Known about the structure:
By secondary structure, this protein is mainly alpha-helical. It contains five helices and four strands; from the N terminus they run αββαααββα. The model has no long low-confidence stretch (mean pLDDT 89).
Amino acid sequence: MAKLSYKMSYYALYVCIALILVVLGMFYFVGYNNPVGEYNEPAHTETLIYLMYAMFGICVAVTLIGAIAQFGAALRDNPKSAIKSLLGIVLLVVVLVVSYSMGSDATVMTGTGPYTDAFWLKITDMLIYSIYFLFGVAAVGTLINLSGIFKK
């Protein structure tokens, strides 16, 4: 079974690399649109953006399916440790809720005028604050790991 999963991931990697190279080739070498005056835009900008959306969506879906499957297997074998493994997800949800509540819904001026959608303004702040917090946690965790405090 391990060989089959290894081969599948091996082929999936090469399919993704080939797809990325084809789309990047289209983006850089096919041609340009001229949307505004002298400013050029590659003709396949939307193709590249859709590829990024698709790859991100597939990554999120595979991660969620894998986490649910792993949790289900762990729940059968050792329910206590399986419940403990949910701690990370619970902490992530807490960080997202707290950072959403910290977000501002003040109007932002853009090139086309004021932007007033409070929900998306707060979501943007939530993502920025969450990135800052998680980056700080990663930096502190790295420093603790490098210090050797938890070595046995």
